[in-house]
Each structure stands twice: as C-alpha cells, then as structure tokens.
Amino acid sequence: MTKMSADDRRSSSETRRKPAAIADGGVENRIERATDSASVDDLEYDVVTTPVLVVGAGAAGARVAISLAESGVDPLVIGKRDHGDAHTTWAAGGINAALASLDEDDDWTIHAADTLNEGHHLNDPDAVELTAREMPDRIRELAEWGMPFDRTDDGAINQRYFGAQSYRRTCFVGDRTGEAMLETLIDRARALEVPYRENVMITRLLSDGRRVFGAAGFDMESGRGLLFRSNHVVLAAGGFSALYDRHSSRDDENNGDAQALALEVGARLLDLEFVQFHPTGMVGERYGEEWDGRLVTEAVRGEGGRLYNADDERFMERYSPDQMELDARDVVARAIGREIEAGRGTDNGGVYLDITHRDDDYVRARLPRMVERFASLGVDITAEPIEVAPTAHYTMGGVDVDFRTGETGVDGLYAVGEAVAGVHGANRLGGNSLAETVAIGKLVGEHVADAVGESDADPPVTDAQRALAEREFGALESLAAADGDVAPTTLLADLGELLWTHAGILRDESGLRAGLAELEALRDRTGDLRVEGGLTSRSFEYAVDLSFSLTVAEAMLRAALKRTESRGAHHRTDYPETDADWRVNLLVSADEGGLAIDRRRVAEPSDPVREALEEGYELDYHHLE
C-alpha cells in the first residue's frame, strides 16, 4: 500500500485549518493595500500587484526575498503551507562550505571538484563554482543572523563528514539543520518586513507568449481566486521526487509544480532523468505506513553508522572498500538494492543501519531528532539498528537557468533552488541542496532587484490579462465540480507505483516504454476524475497536483529513455557503462507536437578547479574508524 492511499491520516476532502496569523501587522497591511476584488460571470477573485512575486517560501524563496528587500525592492512571497512550514525543514544533516574548521587543507576549489565528481561531470561548472565560492560567506552570514551552528571546543563552526566529500565540510545544527536554517531566514525576512501570503497555490503562470506578467491561483483556505500581477516572477517551488510511491517528501510537496508551470510558458527543463534515491529511507512494519520512505539523515552515516545485510555482513566492503558507507549516494543505494535482490535483505525489503558502536551520549548529542523519532516508534538507536531501504529523495533535474541571474529564457520568469537543474549534474553531493538555496538565492535576488524599474511597483492589469486569469478560475471551478468515479489520490498512487517500477533505481528500455504506455492510460483515466469537498479540500489540491505530476513524469520518462548510458543516479541495465559521448545535458521543451528533447554540451571548469580535480582528492572513510 502506498502512502498516498493512507487517507485515514487526513481525508482528501477535508478543508484546511485557518492559517497562522501574520506576525507583523504592517506587513499584512501592505498586502491588503495592494489587493483589489473583481468578478465576472459570478466568478469572484482578488487582484494583487507586486514588483516581484516569489512562488515558494522555503530557503531558496526566502533568500531571494531577503536580497530583494535589502536592495530596496518590496517582493511578495507566497507558499502552499503556513509560513515556516516548508520542505527545507526536512533537510536534516547539514550544509556544505569549505570553512576548513577541522581540515585546514580544504578550500572552495576542492568543494567544487567534489561536486563535479559526484555529478559525474554533467554539472554546470559555473553554477558549481559560484556555489562553492559563495558558501563560506553565506555560512558566516547565517551565523551572524543567529543560526545556532554546532561549535568546536575552540568556538569554530563544527563540520562533519558527508558522503563522497574529501574533507569534513558539512556544517550542522545537530540533525535539524534545515529547520534551523529556515527559522533563521524567516526571522531575517521578518526583520526586513518582507510581505508573504500563506496557503496559496499557483496553478498557472500568466503569459502572452513572449513574457510572463504574473500568476493565477487560489487561496487554499477560502477557495477564492487570486490574480497576481507582477513583471517579475521567481519560481522557488521545489522538485518532483514525491511523484514516486516511496519518497522522503510529504505527499503534497515536490509534485513538479515549478517544472510544469515553467514548461507551459516556454521555459526548458534540464536533466530530468536524474532522480536521486537516498540510500536510507525508513522501511519496516514496526514503523507503520506513515513513515515508509521517510529519510534517515545521512548524518547517521556521517557520524559513523554502518550498513549490514540480514546475514550480518557489512556489505559495503564488497562495493566500496575505501569509502564504505560514505561513498556517493547512488553507489550506496544501488549496493543496498543489489543486496535485497540477492536475497540478503530483511523480511521488509531493507537492510540495517547501525550506530550502536558509538558512545550513547555522542549519538544523542549529534543525532537528537533521529533518537527522538525512533524512540517514539519503540526503537532505541543507541542500542539497536534501524531498518532502511532506498527512497526517492531529490531531483537533480529542473528548469534550465542562467545561475548568475536565475533567468529562464522567458522574459520576466526566474527560477532557483530545487526547482532548477545544473549545480548537481547526474547526482547531488550530500549537503549541497541547502548550500545552493542560499548561495544562488542571494545572487538571483540581487539580479532581479537590479531588473526592477519604477513602473514595476504597481503594474496595471489589462483586459487581456484579466481574461486569461478568469479562464483559469473557470477551469478550476470545473475541476472542483468533477463527479466521476476515480479519486485523485488513486491516480497519484498509481503514478507513484508506475515510476518506482519503470523509472526507479534500475531502468531499461522495455520498462521505460512500458511506463510511457501506462502513463498514457493513466492520463485517459483523468477524464473520470472525482473531486470531493470543493476548492478548499485536499481532494481538489491533489487533483491540481495530478496535472503537474503527469506532465513532469512524461518528460522524465522520455529523457530517461533517450539517455542510453548509465551515469550517476541514472542506471540503465541495458546500457550499464558510462559513455563519454553522452557527456551532454538533455533539454526538454514543449511544442505543438508534444515534448521535444535536444542535447547540449557541458562546459569545462575553470583552471583552479581543474587543478583540484587533477589532484584526485578523496575521502578516506577509515578516518572514522
């Protein structure tokens, strides 16, 4: 049974709770002054004008907004959940920066080299180098803003090992780093009086075919339509790993919103075939269905956790004797998959992650959230192992952008964070997701601020723009009234199973083609959709998610079919070797005939990073022994 079908946890037709009150009344008032009401043919909606609309309230969106505010631009940030409740909080283990707190030889060029190696050299070298160079200053900035990093005895920001890193480079706050970082960014945004709106879902970007001039969506608490008029829209709405039935996201996040929205208005998508399967997701009947696939942070292995199969063999000795459990995520995930396929897995289809050899107090100090979570499920991780199996965790693919600006190639549209592709290549280095959000988010915010002119402060709303938004509101009301026989959750669950079966850790041509055929049949079933509870229900939200998810799933399957090699997180059993001729990025665009796929050669890194690559730096796991 998939997580999506567990509707006893929350009914798909249940209406949402009232959002938390906006903390700063002045911020709330500024939003209200920018809002007008309108109606046509009994459709009532609000019109909100803003110089910059930031879609997504996680770390990337928050950092963009901070840069805008610091530059004197007054953006509006919108999110699908209560403010502060974003997927960033689930990034537990840490954030990378070459501070050299513990290993004095580390520097940004080695960080960049590790990132390129982990990405199997499909990364955008410029994006990688921007991130690596920026991160020491971004960490110091976060510390100045109050982020409570763990410290060494002499007061330096502490750093831990993470997989495939040459040095201890991952800064952390126990095992709640993402949560602590988002709290810090939100506090900073509030101090700058950045306006925001909670519980808002964007369903369409408004475009005249040449540029984007805003977005349409609805208030998820009231069901009222919303027309956001802005000449600058920044997508920071995450990735698409929740399309899979085993994943580390919440079911209502990372559904491909950003990618589908961008594709529809003419932006291109990049590297969609690369989905990272984290080696250690929770699995096992004792944890319950609600926890299936939830992430067990890499920090457990970073602090010395060991993997054993059901025969009590520390099996990573066979697959990676030098880096062991801290090899690249794709390597460890495939190793676990092979152990399970060979019959050496647990009865629940997993393996064991064991940190009981470390001192109990050390484990409780470094991994407090893991200790607390498993204790609530009757497991003491200081005394017994955790049962784990791979889970869909992160999507390296996304919107194609210029990382210095966030520009998508569509005038007025920018993107940042997990919504985009380029930094991570074919596989993401652990600890780099949070790093990208603040390093690139700052630069994108500064660029957009420079692009904002006086006329952008309160842009007019034309009749054509209103008409386009009103058509969208009408379509949403029709969807909410759908009275067929198939629930959105059923189709999303079937999509998740389809992708896990045909586009999971191991892929081949026959499976990918079967996946595309099943996807087309699933799309046909949307004509019999049933939505319960109206515009404010979970059922309606999932119906909207479904439209995004089907689009992105098709693009991912077609890109995976096109790439006839194995590289990083994309492993084709019918093409098991890495092919030098395939050191290219695949670009997906929409045209009248459907989806088109083109190739683009990968650029080369700078001389300093090339020198670091030639030095061949590599983590020595046995430092932990």
Give a description of the structure.
Strand 9 (200-207) and strand 10 form a beta hairpin. The chain is 35% helix and 16% strand. The strands form five sheets. A five-stranded mixed β-sheet has the order 1-2-11-10-9. The protein has a five-stranded parallel β-sheet with strand order 8-4-3-12-19, sandwiched between helices. Strands 18-13-20-21 form a four-stranded antiparallel β-sheet, covered by helices on one side. It folds into two domains: 1-274 and 396-625, FAD/NAD(P)-binding domain, CATH 3.50.50.60; 276-392, Flavocytochrome C3, Chain A, domain 1, CATH 3.90.700.10. The protein has helices at residues 25-33, 59-70, 108-118, 125-144, 177-191, 257-264, 299-302, 316-319, 329-341, 360-366, 368-376, 432-451, 463-480, 488-502, 509-525, 538-562, 607-615; strands at 35-40, 43-49, 53-55, 76-78, 95-96, 159-160, 170-171, 196-197, 200-207, 212-219, 225-229, 233-235, 269-270, 275-282, 306-308, 351-354, 386-395, 398-399, 413-415, 584-591, 594-601. The chain is globular. The longest helix has 25 residues, at 538-562.
Provide the fold topology.
Layout: H1 25-33, E1 35-40, E2 43-49, E3 53-55, H2 59-70, E4 76-78, E5 95-96, H3 108-118, H4 125-144, E6 159-160, E7 170-171, H5 177-191, E8 196-197, E9 200-207, E10 212-219, E11 225-229, E12 233-235, H6 257-264, E13 269-270, E14 275-282, H7 299-302, E15 306-308, H8 316-319, H9 329-341, E16 351-354, H10 360-366, H11 368-376, E17 386-395, E18 398-399, E19 413-415, H12 432-451, H13 463-480, H14 488-502, H15 509-525, H16 538-562, E20 584-591, E21 594-601, H17 607-615
Parallel strand pairs: 2-11, 3-4, 3-12, 4-8, 12-19
Antiparallel strand pairs: 1-2, 5-7, 6-7, 9-10, 10-11, 13-18, 13-20, 14-17, 15-16, 16-17, 20-21
